[in-house]
Amino acid sequence: MPMTQKIYYDSAYIREWHTHITNRLTKADGVYVTLAETAFYPHGGGQSCDLGQIGGIAVLDVNLEDGEVWHKLEHSPEQDEVQCELDWERRFDHMQHHTGQHLLSAVTLKLTDAMTVSVHLGTDYATIDVAAEMLSAEQLADIEQEVNRQIVRNAPVRTSWVTAEEAARLPLVKPPTVTEDIRIVEIEGVEYNACGGTHVAATGEIGIIKLLKTEKVKAATRIYFKCGTRALNEFTAIQHVLNGVTTKLKTNRDELLERIEKMEQEQKLLHSELNVVKATNDAYYAQELLSAREGLVIAQVFENKSLKDMQSLATKLTAEHEGLVLFASISEAKVVLAQNGQPSEWACGPFFKGNLAAYQGKGGGSETMAQAGFASSEDALAFYEFTRAQLGDHS
Ligand SMILES: [Zn+2]
Questions:
Q1: Which among 27, 105, 108, 330 has the fewest CB atoms less than 10 Å away?
Q2: Ligand 1 centroid to 17 CA: how many Å?
Q3: What is the distance between the alpha carbons of residues 89 and 228, in angstroms, rounded to a whole number?
Q4: pTM of the entire structure?
Q5: Rounded to the nearest whole angstrom, what is the distance from the C-alpha of residue 275 to the centroid of ligand 1?
């Protein structure tokens, strides 16, 4: 059986063709077929595989095994004669990113001397790792501008097959990984690169490149980028968020940062004002609780009070009150128990530790102050009532 003819090497623009199935294989994970001719590019060289249809049946995966291209299908086609079609949007996106990656790597090398050491061209994201500890914002801006200049130049991208001797005479970026039938991708005026991927015919088809961010990966710098339609979609998504935020904050893009800084200051001011009001309110409320107390226990349930506020009020009370303070907050599902540190049989933390499990509570604390959180306000209230009854027995 002759090997599949890889017509993606004849032209990256073949997206529909007629051929026949040459082999079928059923494996545990699905049905696999080979074709007399295929334009389905398999995974390889950092590029993701093509998808599409064979005889109207969806192609799920394309892999290269011992030089043969295997297409994984949803199910086996009835006929051997099949019409094939690529998911062109996906393939063209891969072409834009693969040629874009070659340009980006070439320009980064030229401007910063940093060689590309690894490439990822996924449908999810595209990156190159370059051998540089870091790149400055200025360097990145220069690289982005130069790549876009090369895109506008609309330089032809040519592919050819050469022997090892011919390859040795070319100024290749890296030595080829194969020793015969070496495929060269040339971006006119930029570089010669040994590469098996699918590329656009001229750099103008990349449309645009946008560098998104960098991160440090060991001794290399990873550059995230988007080309063409994907870059446009990124722009649309950012614009959508920006419009939402500026509308919400009743401002425009230029004044957005200023607006947020102003809000932060207002927030700070409100916070300090609120703390003053809270302290006054606590002092007043503490007096009320103290004068209304009966026996050794001050117990109170709050509809809506934070743990921090309950703790601060409890501290105020135990400074003036010989007995115990028990608080619960319904909104927070939390309980606080405090005492003033006088010798007492009531050690708050150990009491919580010993009894919380029965109420699905989690917490603990010191001899003088304990706090616990609960899965629901019902559990918190049940624990509050239980503790109150226990304290009542001992007061
Ligand atoms: Zn390549």
A1: 27
A2: 25
A3: 11
A4: 0.75
A5: 61
